[in-house]
Amino acid sequence: MDIFNIYLPIAGIEFNALLLVLIGFCVGVLGGFFGVGGGWIVTPALNIFGFQMAFAIGTDLSNIFGQTIGAVKKHQKMGNIDWKLGLISIATSIVGLEIGSEVIIALEKAGDVGMIVRWCYMLLLWGLGSYMLRDYYAMRPRESKDEDMGREQSSRNKSGNGRPRISERLHRITIPPMISFPSSGIEGVSIWIILLVFLFTGFLSGFLGVGGGFIIMPALVYLIGLPTAVAVGTSLVTVLFSGAYGCFTYALKGRVEMIAALILLVGSAIGVQIGATAVKYIRGYGIRLLFAVMILLAGCSIAIEQVYKLTDIAVYSTTAGLVIMGTAMCMVLIIIVRLVLESKRGKKLRL
After folding, report:
1. What is the model's pTM?
2. How far is CA 109 from CA 27, 96, 102, 163, in A?
């Protein structure tokens, strides 16, 4: 496979072009399907296979910006984006991100911030993943009954509007001013609830150093009550702007390997179309189940990385990277298979 090796002048290394295309394809599928940037895959993968960490982050941010443009266009055509809510999320998340960053700086001066962040990251991933799995298995029987009526989850709670119970409680708080989001089917919610949710997700992004979509997608579903498909598309709006900002700042520092970024985009441009199309055919709870499994495994990779930091045994760091890439490839395979099966099923029903 050495025939596919190319020299990357900015990073100053040789890298396999086919591997770059594969990584880009996986991230594209997952980004279009889940509404996340994929930095938790690309950055460690590039770093393990030879990139210095700064170049891995900068190149990843460039790829995120490029692939998300295609994903946003695709979801916009399918009507899965609430632009009003998305723009509010960007403005508020920036404030939360700055607060989270300041907390990190303060902790860095006090001691080993890396260990604190990794533990918080694991608790967040495992906690959120476990909640989503419990929610899936608790509500799956009801969703199956509603399937023939064409609803994602009409009997999810007593009010019958399809929103999770947590968001229902938040929607009962009527502190003015009130705001509506017709594109998401949300009427009369307190603007303070919306701002606090995005301030919190922004804080987590700044504190944990993860992409906004990774946190915002489940927050939109479980805290604000968006339909899953709309939550995926709307979260991509935040990812698009954060990716653009990150790409710009790292490019100014000379830490973006443009050749690698362009090759990644070749794979991700194809993957994004597949992932976004799959949202149309796979029901909301199917998306949430796959997302839950993905973040639980991502938490396991962070745990393995934590062991590496404590023992300094290199095999653990390599294992963490392999878990990440293995998870990504398995998720992509499942999504593609489900897409093919559901699309065939849809054609039969139309006949």
Report:
1. 0.72
2. 34, 20, 11, 42
Q: Judging by DSSP bridges, how do beta strands 13-16 and 178-181 pair with one another?
A: unpaired
Q: Could you say which DSSP state residue 175 is in? A: P
pLDDT tens figures, 10-25: 888 888 899 899 988 9
Say if residue 263's pLDDT is above 90.
Answer: yes
Distance CA 244, CA 36 (A): 14
- Are 206 and 99 in contact, with CB atoms under 8 Å apart? yes
Return the ∠ at Cα 322 (arms to 321 and 326), rounded to 5°: 125
Q: What are the pLDDT digits (tens) for 78-91?
A: 888 999 888 888 88
Smallest Cα–Cα separation from 27: which of 237, 82, 19?
19
Range of the domain at 192: 2-350
Number of structural domains in the chain: 1
Query: In angstroms, what is the C-alpha Rg of the chain?
Result: 20
Count of CB atoms situated within 10 Å of the CB of 121 = 22
